[in-house]
Amino acid sequence: MVPRFYFDVRDGAKFTPDDEGLECASLDTAERMAAETAAEIGRELLPKGDAREITVEVRNEHRQRVLTATASLEIHQVDPEPLPPRW
């Protein structure tokens, strides 16, 4: 029997539960899917400034959380030192 995993998504304060789940061959496969999902959602939302962190929480067939995968974006603006005058 192939285990079923549920992939809930947290986007800041927004939470989207997965009520259907997907069958995955193993926890490693579910981990890879969670990482890919977090990165994919992050690619769409993070650069637009809509969110700073996307987390996919994976639950097993007993609805117990077994892992999380997070994609985040940090931006640090740096004011460069003024250039000396050129004479």
Structure described in brief:
The chain is an alpha+beta fold and 87 residues long. The protein has one helix at residues 27-45, and strands at 4-11, 14-16, 22-23, 53-59, 65-72.
Distance between the termini: 78 Å
Strand percentage lies at: 25-35%
The biggest sheet amounts to: 5 strands, antiparallel
Mean pLDDT: 89
Anisotropy-based shape = elongated
Instruction: Calculate Rg over CA atoms.
Output: 19 Å
Question: Strand pairing plus helix content: what structural class?
Answer: alpha+beta
Helix content: 10-25%
Secondary-structure element pattern, one letter each = EEEHEE
Number of strands: 5
Q: Low-confidence segments, ≥5 residues, pLDDT <50?
A: none
How many DSSP H or I helices?
1
Folded structure, characterized:
A hairpin with a 2-residue loop joins strand 1 and strand 2 (14-16). The chain is α+β, with helices and mostly antiparallel strands and 87 residues long. The chain has one helix at residues 27-45, and strands at 4-11, 14-16, 22-23, 53-59, 65-72. Strands 1, 2, 3, 4 and 5 form a 5-stranded antiparallel β-sheet that branches. The N and C termini lie far apart (78 Å).
Per-chain topology:
Blueprint: E1 4-11, E2 14-16, E3 22-23, H1 27-45, E4 53-59, E5 65-72
Antiparallel strand pairs: 1-2, 1-3, 1-4, 4-5
Notable traits:
single chain; 87 residues; alpha+beta; five-stranded antiparallel β-sheet
